[in-house]
Amino acid sequence: MNRITVFCGSSFGNKKEYETQAFKLGQTMSENNIDLVYGGAKVGLMGAVADGVLNKNGKVIGVLPDFLMKKEIAHDNLTELIIVKSMHERKTKMNELSDGVIALPGGFGTLEEFFEMLTWAQLGLHKKPIGILNIHGFYDLLLEFILKMVNEGFLKEVNQQMIIVSTDSQDLLDKMKNYVAPEVGKWIKKGNE
Fold first, then answer.
1. Its GO biological process terms (predicted)?
2. Where are the alpha helices (DSSP H) in 39-79?
């Protein structure tokens, strides 16, 4: 893994630990010679993870839609800032540039980006590792809900297991480096078909 896309909040959240761990993830990525691909902003956890990479002299590629550039939230010190026309183009470019994905705490946008990449993996469009850095149990309820999807017959267990989870940055990166994508198809069949 040479580059990882990180999806996370443009806010800091209510707990200082979110910011601290986002910064630490950035440092850990740089220490592992992994470049960051992210949304390009200087605000919230997005800015913290970028600052963590830059703190250890790592490379950071931001991908920012032009309408957000006009709101003056672009990070000033990135290795490269790519300006795109839309949110869809942003996700496509981030996917093209990365070898894996990590989700940190965030809101609707973070979840939408995370689940799109997970869905693409489920459909076999890529075989990249997809991780969650589960800071302060932020994703516990979501992971419980995903287990409910399995138990209710809407998701295969093998697809649930595509999500790599850890509370520690280095452990998460190690698990992602050793990830092997499932070879089974997405479709759930009735009975013994």
1. cytokinin biosynthetic process
2. 44-55, 66-69
Q: In 10 A of CB 68, how many CB atoms? A: 18
DSSP 59-82: -EEEEEEHHHHTTT-B-SS-SEEE
CB atoms within 10 A of CB 55: 13
What are the backbone angles phi and psi of residue 73, rounded to the nearest 5°?
-105, 5
Least Cα distance to 102 among 155, 192, 175 occurs for 175
- Is the CB of residue 163 less than 8 Å from the CB of residue 176? no
Is residue 135 within 8 A of residue 19, CB to CB? The reply is: no
Q: Using the 8-state DSSP alphabet, how is residue 43 labeled?
A: S
Q: Is 159 helix (H, G, I), strand (E, B) or coil?
A: helix
Instruction: Give the contacts of 13 (CB within 8 A, at least 6 positions apart).
Output: 19, 45, 105
How many residues are listed for the chain in this entry?
Answer: 193
At 172, phi and psi to the nearest 5? -65, -45
pLDDT tens-digit series, residues 125-160? 999 999 999 999 999 999 999 999 999 999 999 999
Question: Which pTM was predicted?
Answer: 0.93
Say how far apart CA 52 and CA 49 lie, in whole Å: 5
